[in-house]
Each structure stands twice: as C-alpha cells, then as structure tokens.
Amino acid sequence: MIQSLNDLKYSVTTMDATTPTTFILGFNLLLLSIFISVFVNIANAASEIDKLTALINQDEANAQLYIRRADIYFQQNSFFDAVEDYTTAIELDPGADQAYFGRGMANARQGYIDEGIADLSVYIERHPDDSRAYTKRGVRYLWKQDFINAEKDLTKAVELDNTNAEAHDDLGVVLARKRQYPQAIEHFRATIQHDPSYQKAYHNLALTLYLAGQDEQALLMVNHAVALNPNHRDALMLKSQVLKTLGRPGEAAAAQEAAEFLPETNWSEAVPVE
Questions:
Q1: Of the four listed, 37, 67, 91, 173, which is most buried by Cβ atoms within 10 Å?
Q2: Contact, 9 vs 256, CB < 8 A?
Q3: CATH code given to domain 146-274
C-alpha cells in the first residue's frame, strides 16, 4: 500500500543551477508564512492552557475543565498530555462521554490504535446515532488495515448522515482497495458534492479514475485538487503520471518539476496503487 503515488515508478531530477530563483524565493516565503501562523497558534494555545490550569487549580474536581484543556492539547498534537487530562476527566466523571471520544482520538494518534478503538466504542455505545464517531472509529480500523470493520463503520456513518463528507471519502478508499471502482467513484463524488473544498477527495477520485482507465476525467479531477492546493506534492505527481499516460510528456515534466521540492503528504486514508 502507498500514500497516493509513492509506489509508482517515476524519475525525479535534482536541483541544479537552472532552478528558477523565483520558485525558490516563493517557496521560502511560503515556509515563512506557515511558520508565523504556527507560532501564533502555539502562543494562543499556551495562553488558553495557562488559563485553564489556573481554573483547575481552583476546582480540581471539575471534569469539564480537564476536557477543555485536553481538547487544546489534542489540537496542538500534544497527545500524551491530552490522554492524561481525558483520563482524569473520566476518573472524575465516568459519564463524561466526550472524554472517551477525545481519549479514543488521542490514543490512536499516539499509535495505541486498539485502545483508541475501545474508547470510541464506549462513546458509540452511548451515542449510537453519532455518524462522526463511526467515521473516526472506521478510520482507525483503516489504520489497522482491518478493512472489514472499517467498511462496516464507514457504511454506518453514511447511513446515519448521508452528508458526511469524510465518511464518503474514507469508504471510497476501502472500496477502491477492493477494486470496486464505480462504487468508490460514487462516494468520492458524494464527498465533493457535500464539501467542494475537500482536496483529498479530488485526489482520491482522480487516482481511482486513473486506475479505472478514465484518464481524461482523472486529469480534470487532479486539476481541481491542484487548484485547491497548488503546493500538494502527491497531486502534482499524479497529474504528471496522468499526463504521461495521455501522451503529453512536456506538461508531465513541468508538473513533476513543480512537485520535486515539496514535502510528501502523510495521508493514511488514500487510495493505493497496486
């Protein structure tokens, strides 16, 4: 299994003296903008954590305060601290369902996928009509490559809420793995219908169309993916591959060159090329 096109065989050239200076400058400005945004977000989160810590010191038995602080830790990818706070909230209030949901999310992000599924299962037992919870548990089954249970959960999520764009996209991934391309394409299109900004769905749809031999449609969809994120390496590499197949080597080379120095995507719910 690969993330997007990582296992496709393509040649990648290295930077040399002909690399446009404007491209390098633009890329550096992009990195600077991202750094500033991240720094501001971290500073704001730290301020909120300090405020909540002060409140917790005054009211240590308040489970909701721990949940609020854990949510911020989770948003900052401080999953260990998030699990600690969610666990404290559960000890203080075993009926704190949101703490089970949050801990399930955070545990799995640390690699404790079974523990995460167990917590999400508690939440689902108490909230059997929550489409989002089935989606998140289904994704964790995907991480385990337990595609049978992933399909069950994601199908249930769509049944509960047919507008759940994430569930449609991830169910499409499961179906594409089974080479059920028409059904997968239907779900990717549903994702885009309900959330036209869902870039990963355009990418997954383009890749599935490509695998199904619908190259012109694949190019159209991957162009949408690139338009939503011009600096998305996997989308540009997919565009290059589709253009090669269509017999347009010059354009394919340009797309590949644009992708060369961009970071790889770490998608765990992407259509495999096998």
A1: 173
A2: no
A3: 1.25.40.10
